[in-house]
Every structure is written in structure tokens, then in C-alpha cells.
Amino acid sequence: MLSAEKIQSNWNRYIQVVETSFSKERTDILLPFLDKYKERMMMMPASSKNWHHSAFAGGYTDHVLRVYDCANSLYKTWKDMGADVSTYTVEEMHFAALFHDLGKMGQQEGEYYQPNDSQWHVDKLGQIYKFNTDIPAMKVPERSLFILQEIGCKVTQNEFITIKIHDGLYDESNKFYFMSGQKETRLRTHLPILMHQADHMAAQIEFEEWNNATDAVPKTSKPKNASKGDKTLRAAKKVNVENNPKLASATLDVIDSFFKD
């Protein structure tokens, strides 16, 4: 969780980075757009599940800034190790870092993440937010690019490819780019790889922060002599049908059958 002060300071830094990283042609489009959706974007999370990364108010901006910082560090590493950084510009790298996840805001007329009203999903699955099914289904990178073209913000070819495939091989449709079978179809720049590394690094750090904070919270004590079967039975008895109306009676019967004499 982030304090109100941290959420505000993150947003202030985000706007300052946008103001100083791009041409006036772009900032004249981006800044009014960001100001229009300031409240939503300041408060929206970066993911839906607490064990994933930054699934809390202000998580999106916090994550994007971390990706931006990771990308800058990785750029230096790639350059120091002899990589050809002339195939893209620093502005392209910064643009991809700051807007790769823009699609997580949803449509202009509908948010992507909504607070989960099913306590069962929150408690059992860590799904703090649910997805808004009233807006068309679209992958986050593709929605990011859709929104950018919708507001009239041009992207370069490097930026387009980097944003589209920043999830790496977690998205199988990206195999065409990352697993080329011939020289001619290989990526012409390592920027998408760098951005995937930056995004993955940021998400892993955010998971570790959440995990360490969770581990620091005292757990409810359990009897030391409890058998594995006893623990399983207690866990099964905690299932609350009222909080999960879609849990069919047939499923409950199957669960009950495991514990019958």
C-alpha cells in the first residue's frame, strides 16, 4: 500500500518526466490527456492480484516509474557490455517505458480494473480487483497502442514494436519476434528485449516487496500436532458459499466426499 503523499509525489514525478522527455508536439497531446484522466491514473493499480505486482491504489504509476528507472539502468549495462544502442533513441526507450502499460486504464469511457465485490476471490485468490467486462476485451499492449493513436500521439516503429511485445514470451503471439528462424526476421534492435527485462525486473521487485511485507505479518497460530488431513479439513470448512455463489452444489459434494468416513 502507498500513502496519499507517495501517490501524489509519484504522479508529480511522472508528469515531470513526461514534460522533459518528449518533444512539444507530443507533450501538447500527452499532458492534456494525462490531466483529463489524472484522478483515475493516479489511483489505479498495476495488476489485479496482490501476489502479482502493485495491486493497490497508485500501483500503476509506481510500477511505470520503476520500469523507467530499470530501463535507464539496463541501458547503461547494455551499452557498457558493447551493445549497439544506436538502433534506437533514449526518447524511444523512455516513451515505451512510460506508456507500455497505458492500456491498463481501460477505455476512455470505462476503467479496466474495478474493486472486487467477491470477498471469496479476495481472500482465496488474492484477486483485489476484477476486470471490467463492459468494455471490449483487448490485450494491454494493444490497448496501449490503440489509446495512443486514438488521442493522436504518433509512435515510432521502435516504440510500436517495443510496446506491443514488451511481455516477451509470456505472450505466445510474440514468438514471431523473439524466436525468429532466420536472420531477416530477427529484431533489428534490442530495445524490446531491454524493455521486457525492465518490466520483468520491476514486477519481480514489487512482488518481493509485497511478499516480504506479508511474511512480516504474524500468522494465525495453528496446533503444532495438526495432521495434514486436519489442516485440509479446516481449509475446506472455510469455504463460504455466500461469498462465492457460483460454487456449484456438485462441487461442494465432491469436496465433502473427501472427508466422509
Q: What is the CATH topology of the largest domain?
A: Hypothetical protein af1432
Q: Tell me the helix content.
A: 55-70%
Order of helices and strands: HHHHHEHEHHHHHH
- The structural class is mainly alpha
Q: How many β-strand runs?
A: 2
Percentage of β-strand residues: under 5%
The total tally of domains equals: 2
The oligomeric state is single chain
Mean pLDDT: 87
Strand order of the largest sheet: 1-2
Could you describe the 3D structure shown?
This protein has 261 residues and is mainly alpha-helical. It has 12 helices and 2 strands. It has a two-stranded antiparallel ribbon. The longest helix is centred in the last third of the chain and has 26 residues.
Annotation keywords:
55% helix; 2 domains; 2% strand; two-stranded antiparallel sheet; 261 residues; Hypothetical protein af1432; mainly alpha; 12 helices
List the helices and strands and how they pair.
Elements: H1 4-21, H2 24-36, H3 38-43, H4 59-80, H5 90-99, E1 113-115, H6 119-125, E2 129-131, H7 140-150, H8 157-164, H9 175-178, H10 191-216, H11 228-237, H12 249-257
Antiparallel strand pairs: 1-2
Helix pairs in contact: 1-4, 4-5, 4-10, 5-8, 8-10
